[in-house]
Specification:
445 residues, alpha+beta, Beta Polymerase, domain 2, eight-stranded mixed sheet, two-stranded parallel sheet, 10 strands, binds adenosine-5'-triphosphate, binds magnesium ion
Length: 445
């Protein structure tokens, strides 16, 4: 009933799936003040020159759903060169999918030219994945190429109207994620859409239209053809969406977690690590939703930690020395991930810093704890330690000790030091080293 009514109300000008509905300001609920002034200026600038220009995609969807958008994209019938000529601070980027970045102060607006519908001539790989995409088309064609109906909405900030070609507003109001076109062929064109379906439905609290959900299980294998860098980007989006726990749950429900990404296997297939990872992702979600920064390095360090622990344990049993064994385990785990996920080098550095600090929290005697406090990455290492304690991997008491130690005054700190429980021989070595402090066993700077 309600579904029918909504579709009728928002599909005013006809019933065909790609018939335009022009939704006036009072009905879609977007207030101009909520729209980025930079995006408005880009649309106004283009319209002044006689082009069509709209805020498009995720931003319009989020505004109608009452969520503050992450960024604002603009779509236009001006070509990249024409856009470039209008805005002084702009540049054309991309090759396979050309767009223009227009800069206003600190903000960058992505401007893309309406894309034409795919034809038999569209450049695709052997699995049907679209490779090159720079043929310009009409707004109707552009709308038809977007993935889900809720993403094919165009907001005109000058007129205040929303152009809706695929009943996206009605779908949004009735909380359904519906594909434009035939889901199977849309997944074949771009398998990332399966992950987007999960992420967007989790973020917006939508349920998947049965036709969107049905083919995922059997088509999941296509994700293996996605280039590593794109997959990594998509995983980051998913994990930093503020709804990571819900996304992971839904990935599992859709059968998208198995055998696809080594990283997801890692997260979901190890009972020991699961509690730790869910705790970490829950923490990340809280931070993202509170508008706090989240470091990808910290996140990936948590996701892979139990892999490192398992690998480290094997090496110790092989009688490797503990610290070199940890370093060997770290490298091996990261290498396995790198095959599929292009984790950038800077992030790898952050991950290793956090892991390498962990054994140093065990040392609570002498000068070692003081030196650890001075480490530039102490805070991240400590936050990581707290998660380890929260998941039951290490005693709560150790994390509590560090919480108190870092906040205590000099006298209290002195009193807190825990006498070294190492065997006699070791203690004697330490005793000898009184004038020269013991070497930094982790090799960390
Ligand atoms: P968010 O920004 O919240 O991550 P989004 O939907 O805005 O979600 P973007 O990657 O910013 O995602 O894409 C912007 C728009 O481009 C989308 O709303 C959609 O219309 C279109 N789009 C993005 N990726 C695809 C895709 N794989 N297939 C078809 N259309 C897509
Ligand atoms: Mg977006």
């Amino acid at each position: 009933m309600i579904r029918k009514l909504l579709r009728r109300v928002f599909r005013r000008n006809g019933n065909a799936d790609n018939r335009l509905a022009l939704i006036p300001a009072g009905r879609h609920g977007i207030r101009r003040e909520e729209v980025s002034p930079a995006a408005i200026k880009v649309c106004e600038g283009l319209q002044r020159e006689g082009f069509r220009a709209y805020v498009v995609g995720g931003a319009v969807r989020d505004l109608i759903a009452g969520i503050p958008p992450k960024d604002f994209d603009v779509a236009t019938d001006a070509t990249p060169e024409q856009v470039r000529a209008i805005f002084r601070r702009s540049r054309i980027i991309g090759r396979r999918f050309q767009i223009v970045h227009v800069m206003f102060g600190a903000e960058t607006i992505e401007v893309s030219t309406f894309r034409a519908a795919h034809t038999d001539h569209t450049e695709k790989d052997a699995h049907g994945r679209v490779l090159r995409d720079n043929v310009w088309g009409s707004i109707e064609e552009d709308a038809g190429r977007r993935d889900f109906t809720v993403n094919a909405l165009y907001y005109d900030p000058v007129a205040g109207t929303v152009l809706d070609y695929h009943c996206g507003v009605a779908d949004l109001k009735q909380k359904t994620l519906r594909m434009i076109g035939e889901p199977r062929s849309r997944y074949r064109e771009d398998p990332v859409r399966m992950l987007r379906a999960v992420r967007l439905s989790a973020k917006l609290g939508l349920s998947l239209d049965p036709a969107v959900a049905a083919p995922i299980r059997e088509m999941a294998g296509l994700i293996e053809n996605i280039p590593a860098a794109r997959l990594f980007e998509e995983m980051l989006k998913l994990l930093l969406s503020g709804h990571a726990v819900e996304c992971i749950k839904r990935l599992r429900d859709q059968g998208l977690h198995h055998g696809l990404l080594p990283l997801l296997d890692v997260i979901l297939e190890q009972p020991l690590g699961e509690k730790f990872v869910l705790l970490a992702l829950g923490n990340t979600d809280d931070r993202v939703r509170a508008g706090k920064s989240v470091s990808p390095g910290f996140l990936f360090a948590t996701l892979l930690w139990h892999e490192v622990l398992a690998n480290w344990e094997i090496r110790k049993q092989r009688r490797e020395l503990p610290i070199p064994a940890l370093y060997g385990a770290m490298d091996e785990v990261l290498e396995i991930q790198a095959e599929k996920l292009a984790i950038t080098r800077r992030i790898v550095g952050d991950i290793k810093d956090i892991w390498a600090l962990q054994p140093r929290f065990d040392k609570r005697a002498g000068k070692t704890p003081y030196r650890l406090l001075e480490q530039p990455r102490f805070r991240a290492g400590y936050d990581f330690l707290v998660l380890r304690a929260g998941s039951g991997e290490i005693p709560d008491e150790l994390a509590a000790w560090w919480t108190e130690f870092q906040n205590a005054g000099p006298d209290r700190r002195e009193a807190m030091l825990v006498p070294d429980a190492a065997p006699k021989k070791k203690r004697r070595r330490r005793g000898n080293a009184k004038s020269t402090p013991p070497a930094d066993t982790t090799g960390n700077p």
